[in-house]
Write a structure and sequence with these properties.
Number of helices: 3
Shape: globular
Distance between the termini: 38 Å
Mean pLDDT: 82
Number of domains: 1
Strand order of the largest sheet: 1-2
Helix content: 40-55%
Radius of gyration: 14 Å
Largest sheet: 2 strands, antiparallel
Strand content: 15-25%
Low-confidence stretches: none
Structural class: alpha+beta
Length: 87
């Protein structure tokens, strides 16, 4: 597949590729967070994403070097904003 014209298009295509192989625990939620942050940055407005695991536990595990954690499962919604966007 040829490269996309914009880095953001390439990022979304790579995210789609990762979501086709959700064998890694919590990969879907990590990709959803990344996509949401990219949308917030591109649009300059907040973006809300749905997750199946507790985002606080998920991010804590990633911050700790991706150690195996057992985050709570359920339905979570996270509102993402671009801190660098003008207000």
């Amino acid at each position: 597949m040829p490269a996309r014209h914009f880095a953001s298009e390439e990022a979304f295509a790579f995210a789609d590729h990762l979501l086709e192989r959700p064998r890694v625990p919590w990969l879907t939620d990590v990709v959803q967070l990344d996509r949401g942050l990219l949308r917030a940055r591109l649009d300059g407005s907040p973006c809300t994403v749905g997750l199946r695991t507790d985002p606080a536990a998920l991010l804590s595990g990633l911050r700790a070097g991706g150690r195996s954690v057992a985050p709570q499962h359920g339905h979570f919604r996270v509102r993402l904003v671009d801190d660098l966007a003008p207000t």
